[in-house]
Structures are given as C-alpha cells and as structure tokens.
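Lab notebook, bench 4. We co-purified these components, and the gel suggests they stay together. Before we commit to crystallization screens, I want a quick structural picture of the whole thing.
Request: model the full complex, all chains together.
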Amino acid sequence: MIEFLRSNQMYIVLVIVLIVWGGIVFYLVLLENKIKRLEKSMKRN
Amino acid sequence: MTGLSSTYAIVAKDIKSELRLRYAVNALVMFIVTSVATILFALRFDRPSPALYAGMFWVVVFFTGMSGLSRIFVSEEERGTTLTLRLVSAPSPVYFGKLLFNCCLTLFLSASVTILYLLAFPGFVIQSYDIFLSTVVLGSLGFASAVTILAAIIARAQTRGTLFPVLSFPILIPLLMTVMDATDRALQGDELAEAFGDLRVLIGYIMVMVAGSYLLFDYVWSD
Amino acid sequence: MRIVKAAAVTLITFVLVAGIATPMTNAPGSWAEFPVIRGLEQNARNIFFHVPVAWTTVVAFLVSTYYGMRYLRSKNVDDDIKSVSSAGIGFIFCILATVTGALWARFNWGSYWNWDPRQTSIFVLLLIYGAYFALRSAIESEELKARLSAVYSIVAGLTVPFFIFVLPRMLTGLHPGAKADVEGNGPVLEFKMAPNMLIVFFISLLAFNLLYVWMLDLRVRVGRLEYEQSLH
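Here is the predicted assembly.
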C-alpha cells in the first residue's frame, strides 16, 4: 500500500484531507449532542 | 419646529459654535499640516508619479477625516446635549443638519489639503481643473455622507477613538478607489468626458449613502 | 434538519473524493476522468473547494444583514441571535476563502496578493466582518448592540453593489471572467468546464451551503441557550 501511495501522490492528499474532514465531522457531531443535552435540561427547568 | 427650520437651526448652531471655539477646525488643520510635513520630509526632492500624488492626497484627507469628523456626534455626547437634541426635534432634521455641517467640514478639509499640496509639492500640478474640482467636491460630499451615519453609530459605543476608522474604512473603499482614480486623471490632464464614469460612481455613492443613512438614522438616534 | 446534516456530510465527502482522486487526462474518455485545463492542470481541483467557500461567505453575509433588518423591525432577540451567528460563520468562511485564494494565487499567478478585483473584494468583506464584531464588542447594552450592528451591516451591504461594478473597472483583473461582473457563474463557465466537473462543482456548492446551514443551526441554538441562561 505504501508503494501505491508513493507513486500516486494525489491519494496521499486525499487521505490527509479525509482525515481532517473526519475530525471536523466528529467535532460537529459532538457539539450537536452536547447542545441536545443542554436543550433537554433547559426544558426540564 | 418645522423640519426645515430645525435643520437650519442645527447647522447654524454647529457652525456658530465652531466659529467661536474653532475646536474641530484647528484639529483638522493641525493634522493636515503635520501629515503634509511628514510626507515632505520623506520625499525631500523626489517627484512621485501622478498616481502616487493622487493616492497621497486622499490618504491625508482620509486620516484627517478619521481623526476629526466623528466629533459631530461625539461632541454632543461629551457636552451632554444629546438628550436635549432628541427632545427638541425629530430625527430627520438632526440627520440633515449634521450632514450639512459635515459637508462643510469635509469641503473645508479637502480645500485645505489642496492648498497645502499646491504649496508644498512642486510636482503636484493640476492639469485638468474641471476634473479636479468636481472630483474633490463630489469626493468630499461622499465622504461626509458615509461618515455621518457612522459617527452617529460610534457616538453610542464605548471605545470611540479607534472604532471610527475601523468601521469607516470598508464603507469608504469604493469612494477612495474611485476618487483616487479620478484625481490621477486630473493630474495627468485627461478630458472631462473620460472621467465621467468615475464622477457618475461618486454621485451614485452620495445618493445611496444619503438615502440609506436617512432611512436608518432613526434606529441609531432614538431609543 | 437531519436530512440537511446527513446530506452535507455525505456530499462533501463525495466532493472531496471526486475532486481530489479523479485522474486528469488530456483526452477524457469516460465520466471518471477530468480534462486537463491548460494553465491550471492539477490546480483546477481547487475550484471545487475555494469557490464554494467564497460563495458561502457572501451568502452568510446576506443572511446576517437580512436578519439584522428583521431585528430592526421586530425587536425580537431571536433575529439578532441569527444575525450574529451567521456573521460568525461567514467570518470563518471569509478567512478560509481569502487564505485559499491567496495560496492558489501564489501557485497560479506568481504572488500571494495581486490587487485583482475579486481578491480585493473578499478582503474588504473580511474587513466588514471584522468591523462588525469590533462594533459589537464596543457596546455594553444588548439592545443597543443588536440595533447598531444591524444598522452597520445594512450600511455595509449598501456598498456591495459598488464592489461588484466599480472594482472591475478600476483594477485589471487576473481572476477568470474579470471583464464580466456576474458573481459565481462567470468564472466557472468561462473555464468551459467539462460536464462531469460541473456536476461535481455544483454538488460542492450545494454541500458547502448545507454545511453552513448546519453550522448556523448549531450556533443559533447555542445563542438561544446562552440568552435563556442570561435571563435566569
């Protein structure tokens, strides 16, 4: 696999970008859940 | 008080107090003199291109305006007369009165810069008087029309000094770019017809700014 | 709302893969190949990311101004929350657009900054966003803050038509389609992009807008929670 990545460098870019994007999506989902929790507790009060 | 007499009264009051104390006018003139002197020291005997002269001209006008023009509303706050003004007249006369006073100030400002530049820089030769005159007049009016509503906004804010240039610069960029281009043409001796595009933009800018500010002024002024 | 979020994630992932991984050849044979554009070659892939981000920041500004106007009429705090939230996201996207644009400019036109009309106007938008937040931080009272920043964003919005028509006349443009004064579609179509590239591009445009909607929704909900908390 390393050989494949070394020859087609564009795919290295793709992997990096997908990792970054995955991190962002993970953060957004985290925020989403946190806000849902806060809204629920606000409603209860 | 009717609208027109209110407007006239406000302009007259501001002009009279200005002539009495000469506070704003002095500050403006001092700023212009120091700016021009600084440029003189930097240039010595060099002769920049017309485009550079045009740019320098409006840079000085811009920064002098930034230092002095917010006073039209801030002085009211400082003197504690804002409330009185709000009680005595409707918002529109206040806006137009301040706008007219601001126009007088900016015209005075650009006239002073012009005179100083003609005296200080031998390379600053105006080749097309018609373009130059119309550009400076329209540019000053445009400056005043954009700056009045912004001065009203920052008069109600906390850190007034540095906020005014920060807010004004993006709004004034179309004006500055057009006016620098037109002044460049004036210094190079173009025909009046060639500068029509720029002049039309300036007139449009004035109309848009005055109309928008007039509609929005009430939201800034009244609580 | 859930559809928007799922769609945003899947579409952007698709665009990332399609934009970066699809090979470029001189004579594209199938739908899975992009044509090589002279002068750009691999750099053309930037179109899928830089242009939608720039487009979204303008959308965010218009939305912010719209809610500002609604606030002035309704005096409803919720409208102001939406206005600030949109401005915040627009600010982030504007920084991204300016930076990606400057980077692309470095590799295509030689230097990071060129006084090209489009580059200059995205920078001016950045200044407007900065001024908007500077104004908000300088005012204590919430009501005054909302009112004055709404007025400022409207005044700034008034100058936008001037940028669209004035700047291209003043500055010689490097951006493709500089003579034309149509936003968005101008440069895209001037490139004469191949149909499969166009599809990926428009999907990207949609996807980034959906992402913006999701981010806006999150921020607005946080803003509302903070407001509720401040009332207690």
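The longest helix of chain B spans residues 91-120. Worth comparing against the SEC data before the next meeting. The interface with chain C takes residues 146, 149-150, 153-154, 156-159, 163, 166-167, 169-171, 173-174, 177-178, 181, 197, 201, 204-205, 208-209, 212-213, 216, 219-220 of chain B (CB under 8 Å).
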